[in-house]
Design a protein that fits this description.
With about 200 residues, this protein is α+β, with helices and mostly antiparallel strands. The chain has two domains: about 50 residues, no CATH class; about 130 residues, Sandwich (Immunoglobulin-like). Helix content is about 15%, strand content about 40%. Strands 1, 2, 3, 4, 5 and 6 form a six-stranded antiparallel β-sheet that branches. Strand 4 and strand 5 form a beta hairpin. It starts with a helix and ends with a strand.
């Protein structure tokens, strides 16, 4: 009988204790700390820690194109009138579709200081695209090496138009053909810009 009486006193005491604000707050705090998966310095988390996303890691859920490197097959300097063979290495992620096309364009700019089509004062530079290659691609992240030849500012591929001096760079795009829609474009003027 004494045990039942003490048990009853305990329950009544607990109910009174819950009504006291400080005790109620303490009880809530203890319940939060003891919950499974709660991250507390003394309680292990149920999930392993997540490493922060790197700025160079492509998002595997988004379409992307990255320029890895450009190798010139012979020599280092570009000279007008001398075609140059290059090997362009790209990494792409195609996530939104199963199949698409990747287009790589060699762009030629008339100014030796920049590979940008917009200039100071709001004017726009004429950009020539003497060479363009298109490759079918599939879902996932893949690396490509694409051979491309700069015609040497000879007018080939530009209807005879030449600059005499300037810079070259690359632009890559992803597109689908039904309907014909270009859904991603990357200009590589900041990663690769070479004078001729």
């Amino acid at each position: 009988m004494l045990d039942r009486f003490n048990y009853f006193r305990c329950i009544v005491g607990f109910r009174r204790w819950i009504r006291i604000p400080r005790c109620r707050d303490l009880l809530l705090y203890l319940a939060l700390v003891v919950l499974p998966g709660c991250h507390h310095s003394r309680v292990a988390s149920s999930a392993p820690p997540v490493a922060p996303a790197s700025a160079t890691t492509p998002d595997l859920l988004a379409d992307s194109i990255a320029l890895i490197q450009v190798k010139q097959v012979h020599g280092d300097a570009l000279q007008r009138g001398s075609p140059v063979d290059m090997l362009v290495e790209l990494r792409y992620t195609l996530a939104a579709r199963d199949r698409a096309f990747l287009t790589l364009s060699l762009e030629q700019f008339p100014i030796r200081e920049t590979c940008a089509s917009s200039l100071e004062g709001g004017s726009v530079a004429v950009v020539l695209t003497p060479v363009m290659k298109e490759i079918p691609i599939v879902r996932g992240t893949h690396a490509l090496e694409i051979p491309i030849t700069w015609p040497g500012d000879t007018g080939e591929g530009t209807n005879g138009r030449v600059f005499g001096a300037g810079t070259i760079s690359f632009r890559a795009a992803m597109r689908i053909d039904r309907p014909n829609y270009q859904f991603l474009t990357r200009n590589f003027g900041t990663e690769y810009c070479v004078r001729f």
